[in-house]
Amino acid sequence: MPRIGYARVSTIDQDLDVQLVRLKAEGCAIVRSEKISGASRDGRAELATVLPFLRPGDELVVTRLDRLGRETRDVLNVVHEAEQLGASVTVLDPHVSTRGEMGHVVLTVLGMVAQMERRFIKERQREGIARAKGVGVYTGGQRRLDRERLRALHAAGHGPSVIAATLGCSRMHVYRIL
Protein backbone atom coordinates (compact mmCIF):
# COMPACT_ATOMS: atom_id res chain seq x y z
CA MET A 1 0.00 0.00 0.00
CA PRO A 2 1.89 3.10 -1.23
CA ARG A 3 1.92 6.19 0.95
CA ILE A 4 1.88 9.45 -1.01
CA GLY A 5 2.73 12.62 0.87
CA TYR A 6 1.42 16.11 0.22
CA ALA A 7 3.08 19.17 1.75
CA ARG A 8 1.98 22.79 1.41
CA VAL A 9 2.89 26.19 2.78
CA SER A 10 1.05 29.41 2.03
CA THR A 11 3.81 31.71 0.80
CA ILE A 12 7.13 31.47 -1.00
CA ASP A 13 8.81 32.86 2.14
CA GLN A 14 7.79 29.82 4.20
CA ASP A 15 9.81 26.61 4.44
CA LEU A 16 8.55 23.16 3.43
CA ASP A 17 11.51 21.22 4.89
CA VAL A 18 9.87 20.19 8.18
CA GLN A 19 6.86 18.71 6.38
CA LEU A 20 9.00 17.01 3.73
CA VAL A 21 11.27 15.37 6.33
CA ARG A 22 8.28 14.19 8.37
CA LEU A 23 6.48 12.73 5.35
CA LYS A 24 9.62 10.89 4.20
CA ALA A 25 10.13 9.57 7.75
CA GLU A 26 6.55 8.25 7.69
CA GLY A 27 7.38 6.13 4.67
CA CYS A 28 5.98 8.27 1.86
CA ALA A 29 7.73 7.10 -1.29
CA ILE A 30 6.33 10.03 -3.27
CA VAL A 31 5.95 13.50 -1.81
CA ARG A 32 4.44 16.39 -3.75
CA SER A 33 4.73 19.92 -2.40
CA GLU A 34 3.73 23.45 -3.27
CA LYS A 35 3.82 26.99 -1.98
CA ILE A 36 0.32 28.38 -2.35
CA SER A 37 -2.53 29.44 -0.11
CA GLY A 38 -4.85 26.78 1.22
CA ALA A 39 -7.80 29.16 1.27
CA SER A 40 -9.17 27.43 -1.83
CA ARG A 41 -8.19 24.65 -4.21
CA ASP A 42 -7.71 27.06 -7.10
CA GLY A 43 -4.18 26.98 -8.46
CA ARG A 44 -3.03 24.05 -6.32
CA ALA A 45 -1.47 22.12 -9.18
CA GLU A 46 0.37 19.58 -7.04
CA LEU A 47 -2.78 18.58 -5.19
CA ALA A 48 -4.57 18.34 -8.53
CA THR A 49 -1.75 16.04 -9.71
CA VAL A 50 -1.79 13.81 -6.62
CA LEU A 51 -5.51 13.10 -6.44
CA PRO A 52 -6.01 11.39 -9.82
CA PHE A 53 -2.74 9.50 -9.26
CA LEU A 54 -4.19 7.66 -6.23
CA ARG A 55 -5.05 3.99 -6.67
CA PRO A 56 -7.10 1.59 -4.53
CA GLY A 57 -5.24 0.92 -1.29
CA ASP A 58 -3.06 4.03 -1.54
CA GLU A 59 -2.82 6.45 1.35
CA LEU A 60 -2.60 10.23 0.98
CA VAL A 61 -0.61 11.55 3.96
CA VAL A 62 -0.40 15.14 5.25
CA THR A 63 1.30 16.45 8.37
CA ARG A 64 -1.69 18.54 9.47
CA LEU A 65 -5.24 18.84 8.21
CA ASP A 66 -4.86 22.51 7.28
CA ARG A 67 -2.29 21.44 4.67
CA LEU A 68 -5.22 19.99 2.69
CA GLY A 69 -7.25 23.17 3.00
CA ARG A 70 -8.67 25.84 5.26
CA GLU A 71 -12.29 25.39 4.29
CA THR A 72 -14.21 22.40 5.61
CA ARG A 73 -15.84 21.82 2.24
CA ASP A 74 -12.47 21.72 0.45
CA VAL A 75 -11.03 19.25 2.96
CA LEU A 76 -14.07 16.99 2.77
CA ASN A 77 -14.02 17.16 -1.04
CA VAL A 78 -10.37 16.04 -1.09
CA VAL A 79 -11.19 13.17 1.28
CA HIS A 80 -14.20 12.21 -0.84
CA GLU A 81 -12.20 12.27 -4.07
CA ALA A 82 -9.48 10.09 -2.52
CA GLU A 83 -12.06 7.61 -1.26
CA GLN A 84 -13.82 7.49 -4.64
CA LEU A 85 -10.51 6.21 -5.99
CA GLY A 86 -10.26 3.61 -3.21
CA ALA A 87 -7.56 5.48 -1.28
CA SER A 88 -7.53 6.71 2.31
CA VAL A 89 -6.35 10.01 3.83
CA THR A 90 -4.14 10.15 6.92
CA VAL A 91 -3.32 13.24 8.97
CA LEU A 92 -0.23 12.84 11.15
CA ASP A 93 -0.88 15.57 13.74
CA PRO A 94 -3.21 14.59 15.36
CA HIS A 95 -3.09 11.08 13.93
CA VAL A 96 -6.40 10.51 12.13
CA SER A 97 -7.15 8.24 9.21
CA THR A 98 -10.23 7.74 7.06
CA ARG A 99 -9.75 3.98 7.24
CA GLY A 100 -12.01 3.84 10.28
CA GLU A 101 -15.49 5.29 10.65
CA MET A 102 -14.48 7.63 13.46
CA GLY A 103 -11.81 9.09 11.19
CA HIS A 104 -14.49 10.75 9.07
CA VAL A 105 -16.15 12.34 12.07
CA VAL A 106 -12.84 13.58 13.48
CA LEU A 107 -11.73 14.98 10.10
CA THR A 108 -15.04 16.81 9.70
CA VAL A 109 -14.71 18.39 13.14
CA LEU A 110 -11.05 19.28 12.58
CA GLY A 111 -11.96 20.78 9.19
CA MET A 112 -14.59 22.96 10.84
CA VAL A 113 -12.05 24.06 13.47
CA ALA A 114 -9.50 24.94 10.76
CA GLN A 115 -12.12 27.02 8.95
CA MET A 116 -13.10 28.83 12.16
CA GLU A 117 -9.44 29.47 12.94
CA ARG A 118 -8.92 31.03 9.51
CA ARG A 119 -11.93 33.30 10.03
CA PHE A 120 -10.68 34.36 13.47
CA ILE A 121 -7.23 35.13 12.07
CA LYS A 122 -8.70 37.26 9.28
CA GLU A 123 -10.96 39.07 11.74
CA ARG A 124 -8.06 39.84 14.09
CA GLN A 125 -5.98 40.98 11.14
CA ARG A 126 -8.72 43.38 9.97
CA GLU A 127 -9.11 44.75 13.51
CA GLY A 128 -5.34 45.26 13.82
CA ILE A 129 -5.15 47.06 10.50
CA ALA A 130 -8.09 49.30 11.45
CA ARG A 131 -6.38 50.19 14.77
CA ALA A 132 -3.07 50.88 13.02
CA LYS A 133 -4.79 53.08 10.43
CA GLY A 134 -6.55 54.92 13.25
CA VAL A 135 -3.23 55.97 14.78
CA GLY A 136 -1.59 56.56 11.40
CA VAL A 137 1.02 53.80 11.50
CA TYR A 138 -0.39 51.44 8.87
CA THR A 139 1.51 51.66 5.60
CA GLY A 140 0.18 48.50 3.97
CA GLY A 141 1.83 45.16 3.42
CA GLN A 142 5.43 44.90 2.30
CA ARG A 143 6.12 43.84 -1.25
CA ARG A 144 7.56 40.37 -1.49
CA LEU A 145 9.20 40.92 -4.84
CA ASP A 146 11.84 43.38 -5.98
CA ARG A 147 9.89 44.98 -8.82
CA GLU A 148 12.84 47.01 -10.05
CA ARG A 149 14.95 43.86 -10.40
CA LEU A 150 12.07 42.18 -12.21
CA ARG A 151 11.83 45.08 -14.67
CA ALA A 152 15.62 45.11 -15.10
CA LEU A 153 15.63 41.40 -15.94
CA HIS A 154 12.82 41.99 -18.41
CA ALA A 155 14.67 44.93 -19.98
CA ALA A 156 17.77 42.73 -20.29
CA GLY A 157 15.73 40.43 -22.52
CA HIS A 158 14.89 37.64 -20.09
CA GLY A 159 11.51 35.95 -20.52
CA PRO A 160 8.86 35.52 -17.83
CA SER A 161 9.89 31.91 -17.09
CA VAL A 162 13.51 32.87 -16.43
CA ILE A 163 12.47 35.89 -14.37
CA ALA A 164 10.06 33.79 -12.30
CA ALA A 165 12.73 31.15 -11.64
CA THR A 166 15.31 33.81 -10.72
CA LEU A 167 13.01 35.64 -8.32
CA GLY A 168 11.24 32.56 -6.94
CA CYS A 169 7.74 33.49 -8.00
CA SER A 170 5.18 32.35 -10.54
CA ARG A 171 5.12 33.44 -14.18
CA MET A 172 1.63 34.85 -13.57
CA HIS A 173 3.10 37.13 -10.90
CA VAL A 174 5.72 38.33 -13.43
CA TYR A 175 3.02 38.98 -16.04
CA ARG A 176 0.92 40.92 -13.50
CA ILE A 177 3.81 43.23 -12.63
CA LEU A 178 4.87 43.74 -16.24
UniProtKB/TrEMBL annotation:
It holds the Pfam family Resolvase. The active site is at residue 10. The keyword Zinc-finger does not apply. Keywords: DNA integration, DNA recombination, DNA-binding. It comes from the Bacteria. InterPro entries: Recombinase_CS (IPR006118), Resolv_N (IPR006119), Resolvase-like_N_sf (IPR036162), SSR_resolvase (IPR050639). CDD domains: SR_ResInv (cd03768). PROSITE patterns: RECOMBINASES_1, RECOMBINASES_2, RECOMBINASES_3. The keyword DNA-binding applies. Residues 2-136 form the Resolvase/invertase-type recombinase catalytic domain. Coiled coil: none annotated. Belongs to the site-specific recombinase resolvase family. PANTHER family: DNA-INVERTASE FROM LAMBDOID PROPHAGE, RESOLVASE HOMOLOG YNEB. This is Transposon Tn3 resolvase. It comes from Methylobacterium trifolii.
